[in-house]
Amino acid sequence: MRMKSDKVTIYEPNHIMKAGIRVWADMFRELMESRELIWRLIVRDISARYKQSTLGIFWSFLTPLVMMFVFVWIRQRNILPIQETTMPYAAFVFLGQMVWLFFSHGLTVSTNSLVGAGALLTKINFPREVLVLSKLGETVFEFLIRIPLLMIIFLWVGFAPKLTIVLVPFIILPLSLMVIGLGFFVSLFNAIIRDVSSLVGITMSIGMFATPVIYPPPKNWPLSFWVNCVNPVSGFVTAVRDLTTVGYLTDPGSYITASLFSLLVFFVGWRFFHLVEPLIAERV
Amino acid sequence: MSEVLVKVEDVSKKFCKNLKRTMLYGLQEIMGNMLGVMENNDNLRKGEFWAVNNVSFELKRGECLGLIGSNGAGKSTLLKMLNGIIAPDNGRIMIKGRVGALIEVTAGFHPMLTGRENIYIKGSILGLSKKEIDKKIDEIIEFSELGDFIDSPVKHYSSGMNVRLGFSIATQMEPDVLLIDEILAVGDVGFKAKCFNAIARLVKNAAVIFVSHSMPQVARVCSHVCSMNKGKVTYLGADVPKGIEFYYSQFEAGKGIVTGNGKATIHKIELTSNGKRDITQINYLDDLTVILYVTVDPDVKDPNIGIYFLSRELQIIAQCSSMSNKIPIHNTGDPFKITINLPRVNFNPGIYMISASVTDETRVDVLALHYAIKELKVCGEYIGRAPINLAGEWEVKQGGIKWHEKYKEKILGDN
User: Fold this and answer.
1) Number of compact structural domains in chain A
2) What is the pLDDT averaged over residues B161-172?
């Protein structure tokens, strides 16, 4: 079966080819055409990841579980004075971890998405966006398989979440856009300067403490402004907890700001990636 | 079937030699692109050079362009631009239809997944839909001859099996424009022959750009040739032997290599023909005489002295040695003058190199070796592609001959 194709492709210097507003149409078309490829890469990453480890999926539970026990212990011993939380502390930490890991793990894997592609990047022509986009699949998958564990923890601590918990996807969606958007940037820079990957690692380690993951949003700390307002992930963490405990958003402003920020990061990142991507194959 | 599928106009590409500077320029370009600042691409910045410099050509369906040149001539860079992996700094490339590339066919395989899973992944990367792959997968598996291995992880494959799988997928692409980069150096003989057939099938319906260092392959496959040197085109046209000549002319004609353990010395190698001395060229089917002036250490009683003819690819195509000709040589230590007459030299016109060697009777210890030390040009009309053009004695009859019918059937049945 011969696919007759009359498609004409033009390659020109980058600044001519990728300038202008018309390029958005190309970007969307390209994205739609590569849906299948993205799906395939997601399946590939997930199945390859769990194939070789004996504990497999269990590892995805282990990280947040260990963190949960550590912080519950720290709090009980009063090593860190953490104020009362709206839900039992164990569930509070686990839920916070789930959202935070979604962000940090997602960003970490996309940082290395281009560099890790190796010969694929330097030898084969295909839309490079899929490499960053498909990395989110793994993150979403991990998030999903942690949900049953979260339910078990809710049962264990005797906490009944509000029904509004089903609206959590509306929080995760903008968070995903932010992860991809930032991923577009960091993966590109990491392809040129490898230091970026270490930088992202450190930022993620510190970032967890600058986000209300293990403590509720602070009221009168010196850093509380940073933790509550500037950090875009905070809004999402708080919003997820609100939907679980009180059933409405206590701070809709920060959620909306964070969502708008995510949209902006996503589109700017995407455009940037599309623009710069042809320079990458020769710099990797 | 003669539409122009590839059009390359004044394409240039520059690269930087320094790694740190490369990163700096990379960041600069990213920022420039982001802000829409037009850079002047005509000038080289510090540490840069033109990897591809002002290349233009056109290619129609059914044509095959051989891209040849020394290492670093810019062939692969040009191929990458044609494949859309890197953008040109200047000029314009137009490509019509689907592009297929037989470049690094194993790229993108995931070692943990099975061959079958990898076919789907690689297929999607190359732009095939699931439906198309479903339709082709049996053909792919059959072509790869991997059998049951198709369902074991690729990491258990040998490198040859890897290439087989990659190649089988790539050849199912049915492209309009096909890019081939030095791919045929792998795989066993059987698979190689199969690949050649598969490529021959693709070539008929596509415009092909073929990068190779093997001139016999280029001569065999290509209808056009583009010879490059340091980013520039030195020859472009349909006269393939001429293009190949340009390629060879880039290399300094052999100073040769002189080695050996010192127990023998070859003082001089002289070529004579038809009474003329110190010649460098003969005509096809002329007689050639090689005279060697040699001294051998008296320790070595029965040296073996020989000469070898090499093609431009430095492959030995003919030999003549005292041992193989059953000529006993007994050494006393006095200087030798050895004359070897070679009647009717039947090398296909072209340029050949001559090596001379002295070994001991075991042929293990090399006492003296002058490798590719002399050049011999054979003049005449180059026909065909083999280095040796046997001058046969022919008899051709047609009409008035009766074949036995059975005999005829048998011949046809054999093929």
Assistant:
1) 1
2) 86
